[in-house]
Specification:
The protein has helices spanning about 15-35, 50-55, 60-65, 85-95, 140-155, 175-185, 190-200, 210-215, 230-245, 290, 305-315, 335-350, 365-375, 385-390, 410-420; strands at about 40, 45, 70, 75-80, 105-115, 125-135, 160-165, 250, 265-270, 280-285, 300-305, 330-335, 355-360, 380-385, 390-395, 405. The chain is elongated and about 90 Å long. Helix 1 (about 15-35) runs antiparallel to helix 5 (about 140-155), helix 1 crosses helix 11 and helix 5 (about 140-155) packs parallel to helix 9 (about 230-245). The strands form three sheets. The protein has an eight-stranded mixed sheet, sandwiched between helices. Strands 13-12-14-15-16 form a five-stranded mixed sheet, sandwiched between helices. The longest helix is centred in the middle third of the chain and has 18 residues, at about 140-155. The chain has about 425 residues and is of the alpha+beta class. The structure holds adenosine-5'-triphosphate (ATP) and magnesium ion. Adenosine-5'-triphosphate (ATP) binds near residues 114, 122 and 280.
């Protein structure tokens, strides 16, 4: 170990577990790529103001969890705590919404930073794959995103996840509900901080995890009873489309989520094997966000799935991803001349698209064969002085143990044939 360790709340991805992370990112993004979502990448940091406005001044993310810094030039920046505000900012900046092709559908994958209390499934650096569909109000778009997330989790082999669904109303009906909720909450027995929250963001109080708070909320007014006709119809259509797709969900009228920008459709994916950090992903519609960051009216919907917690969920369910061995052929040279010759064969194989590796460092046969085994390679190529004198290499099938001498000049072609 060196003098240094990964900072508190962070961890490194190292082989072999890192392969699972790559596979999860791949599995989550595959359905998006197949559904018209284009890849977008934005900086790891933004002007702090983007998140203050775009995520919301009253959210935990902005008030407690953001890593902020002042540059030598005096700019106020923040490490990105989430993806949506940045993606929308970038889409507006590139005028993607003006190309006359709405919705603008984008997917992303990257690192996010939140100064949280580290615990299992909760880190200060974590990674998400996300999707945003910008500029269109259409229940089918909300349904598409929920269905694609479900498809991704299923493709990974996850079964113990549930989809929670709610509608948060829009700028017509939400304010009426907000006021009714505030009136109800003001009469409860709550601590100072929560009382302040009632005035700034009362819906968040519904999200309070404490049992004594939850007990008092049993008779709280329900948003469902306040939804305007347009919101009700929209929500019913989303529900009908997901149901028709055979995707199971649960209506959860307490689901409000931590970000200020959500309107109408709101959803969360939870996994029952994860203990208290049970949310593996979440998202919803954010019709007002564009205007909040100075853009035009662009009703949009999106989600972000947490890669770290998805990997934990796979581990909790005991799902082993079917990760093909990385190396197909492993070459073991015995002696100087064989080293040169086999290194040439390995290069040839690689250029032919066959994954090959090599016993570097002039190790003995025993150690090199151990590495060959560990590599998962299907075939090993071994050659010593005598083989070279005869113009052959020994090709060993690691599954059957069978070994055959193959002319050196035909080794690459023979392997290509055998590996299909
Ligand atoms: P939580 O309620 O657990 O704090 P959140 O509502 O803050 O989650 P989102 O902002 O919706 O989470 O982010 C989407 C997903 O990103 C989460 O469902 C989770 O899988 C992941 N995520 C969020 N924060 C963290 C974190 N600190 N560590 C690991 N994963 C995280
Ligand atoms: Mg959080």
């Amino acid at each position: 170990m060196s003098t240094f360790q990964a900072p508190k709340g962070t961890y490194d991805l190292t082989p072999p577990r890192s392969a699972t992370f790559l596979a999860v990112r791949e599995a989550i993004s595959a359905p998006l790529r197949d559904s018209g979502y284009g890849y977008i990448e934005t900086p790891g940091f933004e002007n702090v103001e983007l998140f203050a406005r775009g995520v919301g001044e009253s959210t935990d993310i902005v008030t407690k969890e953001m890593y902020t810094l002042t540059t030598k030039g005096g700019d106020q920046l923040a490490l990105r705590p989430e993806g949506t505000a940045s993606v929308l900012r970038a889409a507006l900046e590139a005028n993607l919404h003006k190309a006359g092709n709405l919705p603008v559908k984008l997917w992303y994958s990257g690192s996010y930073y939140r100064y949280e209390r580290p615990q299992a499934g909760r880190y200060r650096h974590f990674s998400q794959v996300g999707a945003e569909a910008i500029g269109t109000e259409d229940p089918a778009l909300d349904a598409e995103l929920i269905i694609l997330a479900d498809q991704a989790y299923r493709a990974l082999g996850l079964r113990q996840f549930r989809i929670l669904l709610n509608s948060l109303g829009d700028k017509e009906c939400r304010p009426v509900y907000r006021e009714a909720l505030q009136t109800f909450l003001r009469d409860l027995d709550l601590d100072e901080e929560t009382r302040r929250r009632i005035e700034i963001n009362p819906l968040r109080v519904l999200d309070d995890k404490r049992a004594d708070v939850q007990k008092q909320l049993t008779d709280a007014p329900k948003l469902r009873d306040y939804l305007c006709d347009a919101c009700k119809a929209y929500h019913e259509e989303v529900r009908a489309l997901i149901t028709a797709a055979g995707v199971a969900f649960e209506d959860d009228e307490k689901l409000v989520r931590g970000l200020d920008y959500y309107t109408r459709t709101t959803f969360e994916f939870v996994h029952d094997g994860l203990g208290s950090q049970s949310a593996v992903g979440g998202g919803g519609r954010y019709d007002g966000l564009s205007e909040m960051i100075g853009g035009p009216e662009l009703p949009s919907v999106g989600w972000a799935l947490g890669v770290d917690r998805t990997v934990l969920a796979l581990e909790a369910e005991g799902v082993e991803l079917d990760l093909p061995a990385v190396t197909s052929v492993y070459a073991v040279p015995l002696g100087e001349e064989a080293r040169r010759v086999l290194f040439g064969v390995v290069t040839e194989l690689r250029r032919a698209g066959i994954a090959a590796d090599f016993a570097f460092g002039g190790r003995g046969l025993k150690g090199a064969m151990k590495s060959a085994n560990r590599s998962g390679a299907r075939y090993t190529l071994v050659a010593g002085e005598r083989d070279l004198a005869e113009g052959v290499v020994q090709l060993k099938d690691m599954e059957s143990g069978e070994q055959t001498a193959v002319p050196l000049t035909e080794a690459a072609a023979e392997l290509a044939k055998r590996l299909g």
